[in-house]
Amino acid sequence: MNAIATPAKLHDCRDAFVAVLERLGAENPNVVAVCNDSVGSSKLGGFKSKFPERLVNVGIAEQNMVGVGAGLANGGLLPFVCGASCFLTGRSLEQVKADIAYSNANVKLVGISSGMAYGELGPTHHSIEDFAWTRVLPNLPVIAPCDSIETAAAVEWAANYPGPVFLRLSRVGVPDLLPAGHVFQMGKANLLRDGDAVTLIANGTLTHRMMKAAEILATEGIQARVLNMATVRPIDVEAVVAAVRDTGAILTAEEHSVFGGLGSAIAEVVVAEAPAPMKILGVPGIFAPTGSAEFLLDEFGMAPSAVAEAAKSLLARKSGRA
Amino acid sequence: MQPNDLERIARQIRLRDLQAVYEAGAGHIGGEMSATDILTALYFKVLRVWPEQPKHPERDRFVLSKGHVALALYVTLAKRGFIPEEEIHTFLKPHSRLNGHPNCNKVPGVETNTGPLGHGLPVAVGMALAAKLRGATYHTYVLTGDGEMQEGSNWEAISSAAQFGLNNLTLIIDHNRFQQGAALKDTNDLAPFASKLVAFGWDVTEINGNEMAEIVPALEKRTARPHCIVAHTNKGHGISFMQDRVDWHHRVPNAEQYQIALAELSETL
Fold first, then answer.
1. Minimum distance, in Å, between the CA of residue A294 and any CA atom of chain B
2. Are residues B114 and A94, on separate chains, in Cβ contact within 8 Å?
3. Separation between Cα atoms, residue B85 and residue B252, nearest integer Å
4. Of A294, A295, A309, B172, which residue is 20 to 30 A from A104 by alpha carbon distance?
5. What digits encode the pLDDT tens for the residues A88-100?
6. Correct CATH for A10-175 of 3.30.2060.10, 3.40.50.970, 3.40.50.2300, 3.40.640.10
7. Residue B44: CA atoms inside 13 Å, Cβ hemisphere, count?
């Protein structure tokens, strides 16, 4: 497993999302899609042509969109509320809190083009705050799949989960990392590569970069464990504690601010359960300059080579402590 | 049930609400008194609900968007059999399920959690739309405050309700002319509401919202388009010194005022 390089073919995870959504729509007449004039960007054209009456487009009105989603669930339907993650979470955060999470409405929130997927459009369209905003809300699992296989599995899981869910998807191409037939489990990290020197943890578009970083480290004789941790809440405490126990250091990376996201969630576990050297990679608390998502991730030190270097400096801290 | 019976129930609800505000030392009594007749008409005449089956799929939906008058809803729900009447004593007490804004996961009969304003109407639009999509026959009612209509989310919902053709949705605006800190007209005066709702594609009925003989037919009226009832009410209705006084939005009567209010409400029971 460790010798196999990460595959080169890239997938837009929206395709996996809508493929499952359309199948669910055929199986279950209660499945509805709700969107904010985002039929195209959410790739809901196929769903719309198959089930025109079940595509609810509220127009450019995100607060109403989320409230309508809660009402549809109250009326016995299974709504997938889809919109650009920056607007779905930012514009309607209070609706997500009160109407969805606090009311425990059976609504699936699907944040499309999260992170810096809208790179050049600028920080208004970046959604690098959404983990922080959503993971503080009770009742709301927060999930960022790493590839098309996990996306499909997570959508399938969400449809059967009896409560609200926030699925954070991207449009940036990623290679498939998980095996075909993978079954999603909320709050369970996936071991993608084992090692004893350091643990690299990521989700979404960063997991494959972690795998590449681990390959670089391996060429230097450093064996890194790689965990894909799609579920930001509830965080996989057991996997974090095991990572500290087995490898002694944790490096995280995410397409999100370094404040309040996956790294912070892991740090909360490390501080409370298993203190160890740790570093969080992400957007360093600034509004990003102009550039594509891939450019910006590299710019912020998350190119695989830079991740490998960060891992090595963490190893130095670890041995300095020892 | 005749208008006279409903008026008697409304006075009993007002009295219990007043007592609970006095006991708890908190509440939003002005808006509770303005909305009590509407709540009474809904729960004792209009709504098709079954207290023993609060989640019955065919129940009519009622959303209290002005969630800060939760106490009036609790008293009404208790009187209608959704929760024990003696539980009103726990209002705002530690660990009571009757907090200052209604919780649908704890209190039977509550459909969605409200509190922040401008939330109930979008959710009600979703409920009404779900009925359309599923072929269900329930009707959805939502009660907002007039000051609450300043929230932009309401107007997103109003335009979408017209777009979706939701003739199974009734919005009641409790138009008591006062918000928390001042008169509506001195803050952000959305009145008159009727012409604005008509412009958005709704049918509108204007009533005296403290007059049972006008409330019931308006609630039972079915229209071709979404229906808005502009209910002209009095803040603090039923208690003379509170009526139309902005400072009674969430003030608590002192012992002397309490006795006067008790006497006023009791003499009409």
1. 36
2. no
3. 22
4. B172
5. 999 999 999 999 9
6. 3.40.50.970
7. 27
